């Protein structure tokens, strides 16, 4: 098999360099062209003697491919002379040279990309001129989004010129653009908006994954779902269950002493009535966003979650905000009493949890180290109701 460099090898090398974006960046920035030279591995004297006809066809390909059918130069070929007594002197390709950017585009067939970039730069300069430097620095990204570039510019221009604090993301008023468009292209929109907005318009605590908060749109409200297990003077007596905006819940003066937080909906709905207590559905409450509301001060917060590594992780995070949090039915005795109900935890964690008690930390360590079995998990809804009733007996009395 021949190891001689052929034209296809050289074109592939140049395509790889093109995909780095370097040539387009230099073109967009108006930098002076530096000719490209690529070496060609050609036949040795012995190979020329043994495979002369093959070598002639190989060299002819360089001559033929150096120009288009219309005679436009694609590259120049530089030759070196080899030979011997039996063959005489023979010229073989030693390197190729790309003399201009246009030549390179002709060789690679990328002229259409260049024209597309020219159009994008012109359009950007006329709509959001502050973005032109970004386009020149990221030409391949710009071309890759060429079909939607007008819409992207429309969103950037609208956000730049609008006070977003009182608006939801859905209220972006650009023809042909909706929330799905923003969600589907938030990564590139994040780059574009970061390039043009002043520092104060971007909340760097959030990433592009939370686009609305990052660009200071009005966030979708959080809701808290909870049941009154005893009596609560601040709420209508005839009602026992509520779903309130979390920010509005903060303004109430709830007097119940105990707050139970559970993860499973049926467990939440079936939770026994306990005097002077509320129960919160954790999934609706969003444990990570549980805030120190004024009425939570002095409350006894009881968390009951799955016995698995993530259950203890949630407990750890909850306790980092409220030092009155205690766990319930998240102990080794409860785990061992339900061996027939164990399932597998899909993606356990093993990170340090500094806010666990000694007993909780020991059980968490046993789960991490698979002491009872591989990635075991006892889900909250599998715990026998009688154990919950026994746990609550002191409060019911």
What does this structure look like?
The protein has helices at residues 7-19, 22-28, 45-50, 52-65, 101-108, 111-127, 132-137, 139-144, 149-160, 179-184, 186-196, 211-214, 246-249, 265-269, 282-285, 309-321, 332-336, 358-368, 385-396; strands spanning 36-39, 76-84, 88-98, 223-228, 241-245, 258-262, 277-281, 300-304, 326-327, 343-344, 376-377. It is of the alpha/beta class and 397 residues long. The protein has three domains: 7-108, no CATH class; 112-214, no CATH class; 224-396, 3-Layer(aba) Sandwich (Dna Topoisomerase Vi A Subunit, Chain: A, domain 2), CATH 3.40.1360.10. The strands form three sheets. It has a six-stranded mixed sheet with strand order 5-4-7-6-8-9. Strands 1-3-2 form a three-stranded antiparallel sheet. It is elongated. The model has no long low-confidence stretch (mean pLDDT 91).
Q: Bin the helical content.
A: 40-55%
Oligomer: single chain
Distance N to C terminus = 90 Å
Order of helices and strands: HHEHHEEHHHHHHHHEEHEHEHEHEHEHEH
What is shown here, in short?
The chain has 397 residues and is an alpha/beta fold. Helix content is 41%, strand content 14%.
Key phrases:
397 residues; Dna Topoisomerase Vi A Subunit, Chain: A, domain 2; six-stranded mixed sheet; 11 strands; 14% strand
């Amino acid at each position: 098999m021949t190891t001689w460099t052929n034209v296809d090898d050289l074109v592939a090398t140049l395509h790889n360099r093109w995909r780095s974006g370097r040539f387009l960046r230099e073109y967009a920035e108006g930098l002076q062209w530096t000719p490209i030279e690529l070496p060609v591995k050609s036949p040795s004297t012995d190979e020329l003697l043994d495979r002369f006809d093959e070598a002639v066809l190989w060299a002819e390909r360089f001559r033929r491919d150096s120009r288009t059918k219309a005679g436009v130069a694609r590259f120049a070929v530089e030759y070196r002379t080899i030979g011997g007594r039996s063959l005489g002197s023979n010229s073989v390709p030693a390197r190729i040279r790309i003399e201009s950017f246009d030549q390179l585009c002709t060789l690679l067939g990328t002229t259409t990309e260049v024209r597309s970039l020219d159009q994008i730069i012109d359009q950007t300069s006329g709509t959001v001129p502050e973005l032109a430097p970004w386009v020149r620095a990221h030409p391949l990204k710009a071309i890759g989004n060429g079909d939607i570039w007008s819409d992207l510019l429309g969103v950037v221009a609208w956000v730049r010129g609008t006070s977003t604090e009182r608006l939801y993301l859905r209220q972006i008023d650009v023809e042909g653009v909706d929330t799905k468009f923003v969600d589907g292209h938030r990564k590139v929109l994040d780059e574009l908006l970061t390039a043009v907005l002043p520092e104060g318009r971007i909340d760097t605590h959030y990433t592009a994954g939370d686009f609305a908060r990052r660009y200071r749109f009005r966030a979708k409200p959080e809701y808290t779902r909870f049941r009154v297990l005893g009596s609560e003077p601040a709420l209508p007596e005839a009602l026992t269950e509520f779903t309130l905006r979390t920010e509005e819940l903060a303004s109430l003066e709830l007097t119940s002493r105990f707050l139970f937080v559970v993860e499973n909906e049926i467990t939440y709905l079936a939770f026994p009535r306990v005097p002077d207590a509320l129960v919160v559905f954790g999934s609706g409450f969003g444990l990570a966003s549980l805030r120190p509301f004024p009425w939570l001060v002095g409350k006894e917060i009881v968390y009951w979650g799955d016995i698995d590594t993530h259950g203890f992780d949630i407990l750890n995070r909850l306790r980092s905000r409220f030092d009155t949090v205690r766990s319930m039915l998240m102990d080794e005795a409860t785990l061992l009493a339900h061996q027939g109900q164990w399932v597998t935890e899909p993606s356990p964690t093993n990170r340090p949890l500094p806010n666990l008690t000694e007993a909780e930390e020991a059980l968490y360590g046993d789960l991490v180290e698979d002491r009872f079995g591989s990635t075991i998990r006892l889900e909250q809804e599998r715990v026998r109701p009688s154990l919950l009733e026994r746990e609550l007996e002191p409060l019911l009395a």
